[in-house]
Amino acid sequence: MKADVNTLTHLFWDYNKKYFGNVLPTPYIELFDMPGKIARFEYHKNGNKAKKPIRDQIIYFSKTYEFNENTMRDVMVHEMIHYYIAWNRIKDNGSHGRKFWRMAMDFNEKYGLNIQILLGTPLPDKPPCFFNKILGFVTRWYGSHTTTCKDEEYKVTRSQSNKVTK
Ligand SMILES: [Zn+2]
User: Fold this and answer.
1) Do 44 and 28 touch, CB atoms closer than 8 A?
2) pLDDT tens digits, 39-62
3) Integer angstrom CA distances of residue 21 from 13, 42, 59
4) Could you tell me if 63 and 2 are in contact, meaning their C-beta atoms sit under 8 angstroms apart?
5) Is the dihedral of CA 103, 14, 84, 96 positive or negative?
6) Distance between Cα 81 and ligand 1 center (Å)
7) Distance 96 CA to ligand 1 centre (A)
8) Cα(130) to centroid(ligand 1), Å
9) Which CATH superfamily does the domain covering 5-100 fall into?
10) What's the gap in Å between 119 CA and the centre of ligand 1?
11) Which residues pair with 60 in a beta bridge?
């Protein structure tokens, strides 16, 4: 199914309640058409003393990508983790740094989600264990996964890294 603003807004409200303690103000939600990009979170930073840490937050979703219910959920929660990190002024080492990964992995384990970083080339049912490994996360999921995983499937190529969704 194609993304539409009405559905996305309701998903945002739903996941905000379920996964983020309902702390995130409703952002602008817009469709975009950028080759290789499935979704994106954008915002402007306010100064350190400002009451609100960021403004003009927008979650973009591809208008052409064929989502299913799970990918739409996983991609939305992925973008909302970016939002949560920015909203709470959490410092991370990179846009998909350790804090981001910790949250994504926690959600994957706790709620059975499949949040990934390499969303340009979705690997259904194949979690990004390559990143998991280089970032040094060991999770329950990862332990059982290593018994069936062939590492080379997950190595990031240049063409894939162009498609990393922010
Ligand atoms: Zn991202």
Assistant:
1) no
2) 999 999 998 889 999 999 999 999
3) 11, 21, 19
4) yes
5) positive
6) 8
7) 6
8) 16
9) Metalloproteases ("zincins"), catalytic domain (3.30.2010.10)
10) 9
11) 30, 40
